[in-house]
Amino acid sequence: MVAKPLNRCKQTGFTLLEVMLVLLLIGLLATTVVVNFSGDSPEQRLQKETERFQQVFQFVAETAMLKQQEWGLVLQEGSYSFVYFDGEKWLQADEPKAAELYELAEDIRLQLELEGLPGAELSLLSQLNWQDDEEFADNDSEQPPVLPQVFILSSGEISPFRLIFQLGERLEQVSQTVGTDFTIPLSRSDVITVR
């Protein structure tokens, strides 16, 4: 009997070099995809901010009607928040979380327009005494709370306003306006680019 030579099994598979090369290519493709999708244009960034504001404002206005509570919008440089009137004073909203102080990106500015809008001269909301000034005259250590610039009433009425979101420098500026004349939903303009 003739002995058959042992057939050595030929090993199949990938070498370490081939695996490393495939991992390198996958990493490069993933980096390219992330860079392409995360680089929002100024118009897209501004539109995201105005959409967020519009949704939160809508929610707060509906909350005011459901809870039969007066709410307000407080604008400060680079941020906005919502407050509510508890029957005695204005308090910073902590519920819902979206109504808390929201900081905008450093390059986004807000400009509020209240004058010259339809019904602005008929609105007596800003002339109401919502806070007792004597309460803070006695206590010098406390700062008086910030009163809202825009009122959101439990009846569903909103003091007329236009809020302009601006992004960019004077040479190239992108802006979008959100506002209302008396009720929700808020109207939002198209994004405007000024060069």
Helix content: 25-40%
Q: How many angstroms does the end-to-end distance come to?
A: 94 Å
**Any low-confidence stretches, pLDDT <50, length ≥5?**
119-127, 130-138
Number of strands: 10
Q: What is the N-to-C order of secondary-structure elements (H for helix, E for strand)?
A: HHEEEEEHEEEEE
The radius of gyration computed from the alpha-carbon positions, rounded to a whole number of angstroms, is 29 Å
Q: Any idea of the CATH topology? A: minor pseudopilin epsh fold
Derived structural class: alpha+beta
In one word, what is the shape? elongated
Classified in CATH, the superfamily is minor pseudopilin epsh domain
| Percent strand | 15-25%
Q: At the first level of CATH, what is the class?
A: Alpha Beta
Largest sheet: 5 strands, antiparallel
Structural descriptors:
195 residues, minor pseudopilin epsh fold, 5-stranded antiparallel beta sheet, 3 helices
Description:
By secondary structure, the chain is α+β, with helices and mostly antiparallel strands. The chain has one domain: minor pseudopilin epsh fold (3-Layer(bab) Sandwich). Helices cover 28% and strands 25% of the residues. Strand 1 and strand 2 form a beta hairpin. The termini are far apart. Mean pLDDT is 80; it is low at 119-127 and 130-138.
